[in-house]
Amino acid sequence: xxxxxxxxxxxxxxxxxYAAMVGTIWRKTVKKKxxxxxxxxxxxxxxxxxxxxxxxxxxxxxxVWEMGASPEVMVRLARRHAPQHRELAVIDLGCGKGxxxxxxxxxxxxxxxxxxxxxxFIEEARQKAxxxxxxxxxxxxxxxxxxxxxxxxxxxxxxxxxxxxxxxAPKFDLIVLGAIGPVLGDYFETLTRLxxxxxxxxxxxxxxxYIPDGSTFTHPLIxxxxxxxxxxxxxxxxxxxxxxxxxxxxxxxxxAIHQPLIRRCRELMEKHPEQHHLFEGYIRKQEEEIDILENxxxxxxxxxxx
Length: 306
Ligand SMILES: C[S@@+](CC[C@H](N)C(=O)[O-])C[C@H]1O[C@@H](n2cnc3c(N)ncnc32)[C@H](O)[C@@H]1O
What we know:
By secondary structure, the protein is α/β, with parallel strands linked by helices. The protein has 2 domains: about 5-35; about 40-250 and about 295-305, Rossmann fold, CATH 3.40.50.150. The protein has helices spanning about 5-35, 40-45, 55-60, 70-80, 100-105, 120-130, 145-150, 165-170, 185-195, 225-235, 245-270, 275-295; strands at about 90-95, 110-115, 140, 170-180, 200-210, 240-245, 300-305. It has a 7-stranded mixed beta sheet, with helices on both faces. Helix 4 packs across helix 5 (about 100-105) and helix 11 packs antiparallel against helix 12 (about 275-295). It starts with a helix and ends with a strand. S-adenosylmethionine (SAM) binds near residues 45, 100 and 121.
């Protein structure tokens, strides 16, 4: 065998096989991590467990505009920490009905892009932007934010075919994650994934709950404060500010969101008696959630930057 052929046979071919194997393992890992369907991802973010509730969510949430994060707190923190002296490019991932984006566009010089899985939410977000006179600075689109983020990945073997687009795509000054839970993974994964679309002096605003240090409470989707702090640092970022939602504000927000939601679920129980268990289960989950939000965890909006 000639030297080049031997080299190809002994080194290059095994290396290619190894790379293919690593690629397969990598794809399997990513698929496993993101293996929730879009319906499951949305339902988990809306504190449900049964994906069959998915088609009913627009009906159940028809009375609610602010579906999680406090727009006032987001605006306050953005004013304090976002880069100054330029029009901000904002991306609101899991924007729901656009309450945060619309508030930011009303109060700050910025352009917002909101993405959410549910068409009816996106339609309402557009209507709200029109009603508040910011439609020229807010655009909303339906989609899976996990796919959007994956398309924007650079390096680490992620979406290699999309790398040129990702490297030239504009960076965002402000990334909003408003009460979406661990849709993009834990804090380390989320921040690492978002890093490539964050401007060098940009900020990430995260509305989320955490288990305070010293508490014995555990929850599969909620992390301990010290673990979150560790993951932020591991992702090469820092927590620069945080506004904790006080008990009164939390109770008021729960009343505004959960009461109408439970009323609509009861209406659906009457309309669809054959699905009684589905709506009853969702109400039960909401009641558990209220208890967790008010008594077991701390809810805050965090400001994270490099
Ligand atoms: C609790 S709501 C919060 C909405 C909004 N950020 C706010 O604070 O008003 C969570 C939102 O995340 C969206 N969501 C969850 N998983 C998603 C995914 N994979 N892609 C797009 N949107 C998603 C849901 O549709 C829902 O609107």
